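A reminder from the course coordinator: this example appears on the midterm review sheet, so study it carefully.

Given structure:
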């Protein structure tokens, strides 16, 4: 935690999850989050089911979820060191995975698409509306990571800058 009221969440190395047959451990990730946001228990009954690795929420500002999915779902020739570029173009990735995040087709809802690179890894970033969602996608090991920041209309209007800062901070460690 720092004096600005934000902290860095880093996925604990010892946290279990997604360890079926042929799974490698989940490569840790981190992001910045306001200190008053709380981690929410994940249920396999959730939308996204067993692939949701983490949830955070703030009744005032919005919610975060991290979906960690096996790249084998999308292509069988990516191996154990997949990159987001090998999975597909930003358009292909949001069309395929956006519905998992927002629960409906994303056609006509993508307001913006950006590609950024940090430490040699590419990240695709999308803004969708409606619903208000910021999605950051990347790949590491044999998994696709979808980091989602969602807010309702009022949360979006009042806290967009913070929600964008959270979305922009997601990194694979």
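Designed residues:
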């Amino acid at each position: 935690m720092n004096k600005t009221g934000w902290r860095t969440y880093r996925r604990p190395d010892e946290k279990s999850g997604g360890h079926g047959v042929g799974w490698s451990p989940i490569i840790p990730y981190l992001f910045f989050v306001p200190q008053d946001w709380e981690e929410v228990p994940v249920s396999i009954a959730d939308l996204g089911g067993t692939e949701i690795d983490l949830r955070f929420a703030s009744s005032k500002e919005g919610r975060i979820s991290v979906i960690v999915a096996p790249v084998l779902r999308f292509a069988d020739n990516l191996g154990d060191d997949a990159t987001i570029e090998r999975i597909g173009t930003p358009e292909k990735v949001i069309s395929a995975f956006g519905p998992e995040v927002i629960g409906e087709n994303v056609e006509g809802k993508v307001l913006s698409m950006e590609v950024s690179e940090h430490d040699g890894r590419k990240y695709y970033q999308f803004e969708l509306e409606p619903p208000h969602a910021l999605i950051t996608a990347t790949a590491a090991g044999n998994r696709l990571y979808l980091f989602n920041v969602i807010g309702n209309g009022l949360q979006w209007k009042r806290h967009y800058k913070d929600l964008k800062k959270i979305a922009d901070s997601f990194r694979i460690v």
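Strands lie at 6-10, 29-34, 38-39, 52-58, 62-70, 110-118, 121-128, 132-140, 143-151, 171-172. DSSP finds three helices and ten strands in the chain.
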